[in-house]
Amino acid sequence: MEQTEIHDTKAAETPQNRLPQVAEPRNPGMALDLDWVMSAQANTSAIERRAKSLPGRRSVKKDYQAAWLLKAITLIDLTTLAGDDTPGRVRRLCAKARHPVRQDILDALGMAPITTGAVCVYHDMVETAVDAVNGSGIPVAAVSTGFPAGLSPFDLRLAEIGESVKAGAQEIDIVISRRHVLTGNWQALYDETRAMRAACGEAHMKTILATGELGSLRNVARASLVCMMGGADFIKTSTGKESVNATLPVSLVMIRALRDYCDRTGYRIGYKPAGGISKAKDALTYLTLIRDELGTRWMQPDLFRFGASSLLGDIERQLEHHVTGRYSASYRHPLG
Predict the structure, then answer these.
(1) Is the pTM of this model over 0.85?
(2) ω into residue 148 within 30 of 0, thus cis?
(3) Distance from CA of residue 116 to its chain's centroid?
């Protein structure tokens, strides 16, 4: 299949990665519409064909590719979610979020400094991260609600949200109870999401569906709609801890649910693929999918994020190759 090159400078316009001058109105949610939810279907074979064709149908080359990769950096939630996280590791990660690309590479590209979209940590590291990014404008996101399984008592999950907000988290990544989706208990999923949104207060809520554990693309479509009706600011594919995380078919289903919700309500909801996106070429494919399906407005950090850590290192390596014509060793682009 012949490739089509993308020469779209608007899509990758400069990577000032804070919210746009006119912020989107926040999704207030709506009453649960079960007729709408149950009407959501997924043609799996057609979705898989569309997803499979995407990497071969679109390409971004040379200077355009460098611009798109710089844009991708501004959309990364730079993440550490390890049991052995320490304050020192989190501070190093935050330093990388503030200066994600070596200055000599930026100078060669004629670029002003950029930052990542956010830093994402466990609750215990929120205060450390908030202090480390102070003055940069980078928001701190906290995974919450019994992450990654979401099976702790419900009152404790709500309390965890409140503690992270109190500690300074501006974004909360919550996990849904997968059993509500698998048993078709949409009212329970809606009620859970509404309660968590209320607990978030002014902090934006990213709702993790854990799509690899939902059983079908149809369930993904229906869960996406219910979470948006419940007031989600973002819908997110995965915790990164499942055996199957972000995939193009799942992403296609979720972003079409986003488009449907926007068409019906007027509210734009964000999208965050997470887990398994570690190569620059994968980031370009996801950005192309967003551009094709939702348009360039969704290619901004208030509406799109990558949940990743190693992705940044590969992008920086590709940018150095663009500047010098040589690939460098990965240790030249440490995360911290």
Answers:
(1) yes
(2) yes
(3) 12
